[in-house]
Design a protein that fits this description.
With 173 residues, the protein is an all-alpha fold. The chain is 50% helix and 0% strand.
């Protein structure tokens, strides 16, 4: 019998504490029948009866259709459905294309410098079968980066109309 009495006392205290906490957490404009402070006093003064009255008459009604809306569970999205992922992917692709273009232009510039330095030091002609310089410069001599082509030949150059150098002929005054 004392065990049953102890269980009932603990159950009563739990109900009263729950009713107090719920009453305190409820918004004042949602409380029914009497004011919120009056409900708190009623639950404290007449503990079990006040808690029972709170659950029956003071507690805000929650009908089936007006439950607080639950946030929709976040569904995992496929990468191709995520706009932020697609935007990041596009920006990375553009950055890589820019880097490759800069690398290609740098290689073309180095090849032109090596060709102009090598031609001045070696004194020989370049054969047309050698093809474009490393880096794939387009035909016609115009670089792909949109800059002006190499400066025109110097008028004092020893080249004649056929394009051969005059290294084997003496300079004409």
């Amino acid at each position: 019998m004392p065990r049953l009495l102890l269980f009932l006392v603990l159950l009563g205290v739990a109900v009263i504490v729950y009713a107090l906490i719920e009453c305190a957490m409820t918004r004042s404009n949602e409380v029914r029948s009497i004011s919120k402070p009056a409900w708190l006093i009623t639950i404290l003064v007449v503990p079990l009866i006040g808690a029972g009255l709170w659950f029956l008459f003071g507690r805000p009604r929650r009908t089936r259709g007006t439950r607080p809306p639950r946030p929709a569970p976040r569904q995992p999205t496929a990468p191709d459905d995520d706009p932020q992922f697609l935007q990041n992917l596009e920006s990375r692709r553009r950055q890589q294309a820019r880097e490759q273009e800069l690398k290609r232009k740098e290689e073309e510039r180095k090849a032109r410098e090596a060709q102009s330095n090598g031609g001045a030091k070696g004194g020989g002609t370049t054969s047309p079968a050698a093809g474009p310089p490393a880096g794939g410069a387009p035909a016609g001599g115009a670089p792909a980066n949109g800059t002006d082509p190499a400066p025109a030949a110097d008028p004092d150059d020893d080249a004649d109309e056929t394009g051969s150098t005059g290294a084997h002929r003496p300079n004409n005054p």
